[in-house]
Amino acid sequence: QVQLVESGGGLVQVGGSLRLSCAASGLTFSTYGMGWFRQAPGKEREFVATISWSGYNTYYADSVKGRFTISRDAAKNTVYLQMNSLKPEDTAVYYCAARPWTHSAYGDEYDYWGQGTQVTVSS
Questions:
Q1: Are 47 and 34 in contact (CB under 8 A)?
Q2: What is the pLDDT of residue 110?
Q3: How far is CA 17 from CA 62, 82, 83, 102, in A?
Q4: Which long-range contacts does 39-46 make (Cβ < 8 Å, 24+ apart)?
Q5: What is the pLDDT of residue 76?
Q6: How far apart are CA 122 and CA 98, in angstroms?
Q7: Disulfide check for 22: which of 34, 96, 120, 122 has CB 3.0–4.6 Å away?
């Protein structure tokens, strides 16, 4: 049974930082591309960042480029999202997702999803 469990969300002030973690189990982590998506109240889910199975390839939404960094630790079966210079518009529930091998910005291409972690940026 595949499980993706996000953690690290919380309340932070504008300009602050958070690091989200997503621990994966029930799959061969080293053969899955991973992605982070987010959904704000009343809005559709949107792509944030993605990383390939090897970790060599990453891709970011324009809205977070230069502020967020996605990374993965094969030994811990965990993918991270380091979020710096947070803005109120970053407030959302953040989800991690997994798909075989390659990375993707399209949520429909992911097979597995976590339950989400809330990030709130206060001004």
A1: no
A2: 98
A3: 18, 7, 5, 28
A4: 39/92, 39/93, 39/95, 39/116, 40/89, 40/91, 40/92, 40/93, 43/92, 45/95, 45/107
A5: 97
A6: 30
A7: 96
Distance, CA of 15 to CA of 98 (rounded, Å) = 29
Which residue carries 């690290």 as its tokens? Answer: 8
pLDDT band at 60 (very low <50, low <70, confident <90, very high): very high
**CA 55 – CA 109 distance, rounded (Å):** 18
Q: Which residues pair with 51 in a beta bridge?
A: 34, 58
Phi/psi-derived region of residue 53, left when phi > 0, alpha when psi is between -120 and 50, beta in every other case? alpha
Who's near 10: CB < 8 A, 6+ residues apart? 18, 118, 119, 120
Average pLDDT, the chain: 97
Tell me what pLDDT residue 107 has: 96
